[in-house]
Amino acid sequence: MADRGISLHELDPRDRYKLLCGVVVPRPIALVTTLDENGAVNAAPFSFFNVFSENPALIVLGLQHKPDHAPKDTTRNIHRDGEFVVHMVDEALSVAMNDCAVDFPSGDSEVAATGLATLPSIDVKVPRLAAAPFALECRRQVTLNFSPDRELLVGEVLRVHARAGLVDEATMYVDLEAYRPIGRMFGNLYTTQRDTFTLVRESHAQWLARQDAKEAPKG
Ligand SMILES: Cc1cc2nc3c(=O)[nH]c(=O)nc-3n(C[C@H](O)[C@H](O)[C@H](O)COP(=O)(O)O)c2cc1C
Description:
Blueprint: H1 13-23, E1 27-28, E2 30-35, E3 41-46, E4 49-54, E5 57-64, H2 73-81, E6 83-88, H3 94-99, H4 110-114, E7 118-119, E8 128-129, E9 134-147, E10 150-162, E11 167-168, E12 173-174, H5 176-179, E13 182-184, E14 190-192, H6 204-215
Antiparallel strand pairs: 1-13, 2-3, 2-6, 4-5, 5-10, 6-9, 7-8, 9-10, 11-12, 13-14
The structure holds flavin mononucleotide.
């Protein structure tokens, strides 16, 4: 019988989540700070996250509502003032990142609870985390609602703060050895990015030259 794959329409949402999150790996993690209406700094991790454009500089976050269908604190705060800071997570920040996913009551600051130090941002009011390797000051561009419980947030990156020694500002190259980012696999499984390899991207002319060299008679 022909392989018909797995129809997502025939899976319940929980199994779809497990399948898609196991397949699309590793995913980067955004540890997002926002400000609540009383000025408390909220922090929460999101692995439905990526950058997808540099001109304009845009990132996306997949925001799932809570089981009672209420928006998470991060979502509520971004709805209200449109500002947030995305922190990239390195190996040293991984435990604190996970602590920030605890379902603290609304109004409790994960930043205060975990003892994470903050620094002021420049383009947004939301403070950034001092311990993060990179902090991206962001402003909401647009929010797309795909169901009562799921929205996609597109944010513009206004400014990037880098820990000293991570970026060569003459070339904009990032020192991966010094950075040590982590990624999310699925569930409680994470990965480091220590085992990398290089593939050089070719032009069509280079590709043809390589085929010719392969086919040329030896000797
Ligand atoms: C590594 C990791 C990745 C997560 N990714 C997401 C995500 O992409 N979308 C989401 O809605 N929740 C995600 N969560 C769950 C939220 O972090 C969690 O619900 C958090 O308590 C929300 O906090 P808040 O109410 O302060 O915004 C993730 C949790 C972890 C540990």
